[in-house]
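During the second year of the project, the team shifted from modelling isolated chains to modelling whole assemblies. The rationale, set out in the original proposal, was that interfaces cannot be judged from single-chain predictions alone. As a representative example for this report, we include one of the complexes processed in the last quarter. Its constituent sequences, exactly as entered into the pipeline, are reproduced here:
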Amino acid sequence: MSEPRYDVLGIGNAIVDVIARADEDFLVAHGMNKGGMALIDEDRAEAIYRAMGSGVEISGGSAANTIVGCASFGARAAFVGKVKNDELGNIFARDIRAAKVAFETPAAKDGPSTARSYILVTPDGERTMNTYLGAAQNLYADDIDPRLIADAAITYLEGYLWDPSHAKEAFKKAAKAAHDAKRMVALTLSDAFCVDRYRDEFIQLVRSKTVDLLFANEAELHSLYQTSDFDGAIAALQKDCRLAVVTRSEKGCVVVSPNGIEAIPAFPVARVVDTTGAGDLFAAGFLFGLARNKDHHVCARLAALAAAEVIQHIGARPESSLQALAAQHGLI
Amino acid sequence: MSEPRYDVLGIGNAIVDVIARADEDFLVAHGMNKGGMALIDEDRAEAIYRAMGSGVEISGGSAANTIVGCASFGARAAFVGKVKNDELGNIFARDIRAAKVAFETPAAKDGPSTARSYILVTPDGERTMNTYLGAAQNLYADDIDPRLIADAAITYLEGYLWDPSHAKEAFKKAAKAAHDAKRMVALTLSDAFCVDRYRDEFIQLVRSKTVDLLFANEAELHSLYQTSDFDGAIAALQKDCRLAVVTRSEKGCVVVSPNGIEAIPAFPVARVVDTTGAGDLFAAGFLFGLARNKDHHVCARLAALAAAEVIQHIGARPESSLQALAAQHGLI
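Output from the structure prediction step:
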């Protein structure tokens, strides 16, 4: 097995976020599930955009945020995802490249416009997402180059890829290419409602060892095993997974492997401004640590550090160098 | 004189900001004047955009930021400025309307694209701007409706309007319409380099009383009177102006009128994140106070409060309700 060219390669929906503040009443009035991600069609996208307050446009996408986080730690990183050749698509492509991430997926010349997610941040810092998938719907297996996948130590996939109708074929092709090259495959469950849509397929991915490392938050874990019993769900996870990390917001995370279960605390933060990207950046720290052969405890500390950075400002990508932060805390 | 429909109406360049972090070396390498605003052509815009780090897109424009700030205080507000009917233009129009500002200037159907400003924020929080004027160049006197101007207690204009070649005619038409209706005209000098480009015309505007209220920061004041002697410049200002406010960053501001000179301190802030919009929001607080017949001391406190809010986060528009903040501090 040759030395990989990339530490981490991510595959996900290429999305531009429009982040705005909203109060709880707004979510209720528009029938939104607080804290969740809902898929919306163009008409509803229009209606929400008209009704919401003024916002900030910023490149997003769950796996894309994670990969940018990895690059900020100093990882060699790449991303695969579909935008259209329009103004928002150009913004997405430029931002991810400016973050020193290799991004070569050709932009669509026609069809729906670049995906966007309207993210409403309530006064408690919680975010509620409404995503119009647009061009991201047209990510196909043909967009996956097996040589590129073989060249990455870890391929990281988002559960949201089950939503665009063809992307799961891209997902499966990438996972096979990674394992054929003896590389690692990681998956995030993305969202409790997404798990609800594809529960059986996600459980199958884990049990068949198509996935070597699983990321989930508590809500996703409970949705996966349809239980409100946390310890029971962790026990099921330990049986099903090679390695899993469950995030619990301010309570930190739990690393689950056949060797045991370890709880690691969160980093304290002065004020939570916007939780958008907390899970994405958590994954970034853990993946970076793994790619650099750190033990799971250090991986989880790097993960917690990155999550703490991103929830203290608006937007789902780091504003400070995570490499510098990690060095400050003696983690690298 | 009938009761005006608007408290404040702003006329300015309609710009979308792209804000990114940069170090001092980047500014030096690209020949930028730290803290200033440079006009750039399309080629240089391309080159800077390619070289700078990943950014956040957010509606901007100096007078537009001020007017959004006025609306956040609860003022009835309107804005006049030119975008193109493109994706960034749609973002600008939606954001300003979402902030409850009346904005009816028709978007250009062809010609250059919506104006953008690449704003580099250095680690000390200072911002350096590079603006491609694009569609903002096509603001004409015909875009000014004298009835709209007559319906606003204060018309607020930015010195930057001297840069697009036709906009100064729009400026003069608006100032005349305001005075014909016995309304007030305010001007910000915008930027020291802008003052350098149009010094004689700006001095003429003030001495001819085309302008009733002038906003300037220290650098702009020194540039206007071509002196490094602060007290001398203030004395000249007192002779030339009906009312002027000079901002001095963390040293607060000085209100200058024929009746006297009063210094008012800045609001203390925990951490300066990004000074973009500090002057714009300062003007918002002062204009709102004036429109509500507050005395100059209270106007300056409202101004300082708004400036303090905006420098504690990225972006030049308030993230919190300025009305709520002002109430908390007993200013309204």
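The first helix of chain A runs from residue 24 to 29. Chain A has twelve helices and 14 strands.
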